[in-house]
Request: fold
Amino acid sequence: MNSKQKLQPLHLQLSFLFLAFLALYYPFIQTLIRDWDTNDNYSQGYFIPIVSGFMIWSLRRELAAIEIKPSNWGIALVALGLLQLLIAKIGSEYFLQRTSMIIVLFGISFFLFGGRFTKTIWLPLVYLIYMVPLPAIIWNRIAFPMQLFASALTEDVVRLIGIPILREGNVLHLAQTSLEVVDSCSGLRSLVSMLALATAFAFLINKDNWKRWVLFLAAFPIAVIVNIIRLSATAVLASRYGGDVTRGFLHDFSGWLVFVAGIALLILTQSLLGRITTRQG
Reply:
């Protein structure tokens, strides 16, 4: 039996399991897509499965060299994922319902391709976590302290510029208007987007694990920096032109602008990592 004949049963099993997976999770995928439409904090969800697939495709040569050794441990992982789905469905817990998909995908990979194959693609599979919205109670617990932190830093920056400003919690009082640093301006949205972007960058560009970790961890200060720049610039403009600059086109455009700035800082970090390697060489 040649290699093509050996792969035919595997392809049939993969097709069957993929169809069964879609049939089981279709209602949950529908609600997930609805959240991407309505929750601006997770609008990047549409791109995450595509990036995950591209990450796996980038490993095609390495995966082709791995001997396929199906493992029955995959059945246990699938069962664990389905148990999580059942419990989450009973408890109406969306986060656990959706993340059970990732466990089931790990189980399918183990069952069909084996441990070594699954170990190679573990990061692209875990990457799918970025498409799942956090429970609101967790999001708010993180977002509110970040609102206060961003407000305090913005106050310091604006005062250094020489503009009178007074902060009360997450509200910044200027001469002509007051600005409230709301959930969407806390920086958490930027942080999630930067982490997703940095993870993909680190995986696709770097081969050394330490470089991947450096680029990933750099997303944290980068997200904070670009958000403070955005808030400070908004406060300066509001002090001169009033609160209208915080709404409408300028507000949305500034969000895209700081995201582009974040990408530029990630690229700069990667460039510095490349120079370190060149000098060591």
The chain has two domains: 3-133, 137-280.
